[in-house]
């Protein structure tokens, strides 16, 4: 077994994957995406972190499967009262992993300061991938755009 120190930890925001381009989240879509991402990145550790409220946004039969995923440790829910909620919990996991010598890469729809975010893609036949080449470190992206002003729109007539 390879030494986990120095390994990449891929942090997946379950809410982002389950709700990707859907009117309502789908646990089946989350499972499908995680399976593909694990197969595409076999040397990486994968952690799926969810907001506990995701359960109540799933259709009835998926709610029981969500609970089973928690028991099987396929999904970790942010604890109640986590500072800054689920994204704060994801950031705390990332900080701890970095302190242990891991490289951290996240897939989320929300900026995580100091954590590179990968771009998520799903092709026409349903294969999920992430693009690392275009990763965005949220803190650097925010700093780069801090001094720029949005262009002004001309008033019409």
Structural summary, described in words:
- With 157 residues, the chain is α/β, with parallel strands linked by helices.
- It has one domain: Rossmann fold, CATH 3.40.50.
- The protein has six helices and six strands; from the N terminus they run βααβααβαβββα.
- The chain has helices at residues 14-19, 27-40, 54-57, 60-71, 85-99, 138-146; strands spanning 8-13, 45-50, 76-77, 103-107, 116-122, 128-137.
- The strands form two sheets. It has a four-stranded parallel beta sheet with strand order 3-2-1-4.
- Strand 5 and strand 6 form a beta hairpin.
- It is globular and about 40 Å long.
User: Which runs of at least 5 residues are low in confidence (pLDDT < 50)?
Assistant: 138-153
Q: State the separation between the terminal residues, measured CA to CA.
A: 70 Å
Helical segment count: 6
CATH class membership: Alpha Beta
Number of domains: 1
Rg, alpha carbons: 17 Å
Biggest beta sheet summary: 4 strands, parallel
Per CATH, the architecture is 3-Layer(aba) Sandwich
């Amino acid at each position: 077994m390879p030494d986990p120190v120095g390994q990449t930890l891929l942090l997946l925001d379950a809410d982002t994957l389950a709700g990707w381009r859907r009117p309502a989240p789908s646990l089946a879509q989350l499972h499908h995406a995680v399976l593909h991402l694990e197969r595409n990145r076999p040397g990486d550790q994968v952690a799926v972190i969810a907001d506990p409220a995701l359960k109540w946004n799933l259709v009835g039969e998926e709610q029981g499967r969500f609970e089973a995923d928690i028991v099987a440790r396929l999904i970790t829910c942010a604890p109640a009262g986590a500072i800054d909620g689920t994204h704060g919990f994801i950031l705390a996991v990332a900080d701890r992993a970095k302190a242990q010598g891991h490289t951290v890469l996240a897939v989320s729809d929300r900026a995580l300061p100091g954590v590179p975010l990968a771009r998520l893609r799903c092709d026409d036949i349903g294969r999920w991938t992430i693009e690392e080449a275009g990763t965005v470190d949220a803190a650097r992206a925010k700093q780069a755009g801090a001094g720029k002003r949005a262009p002004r729109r001309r008033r019409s007539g």
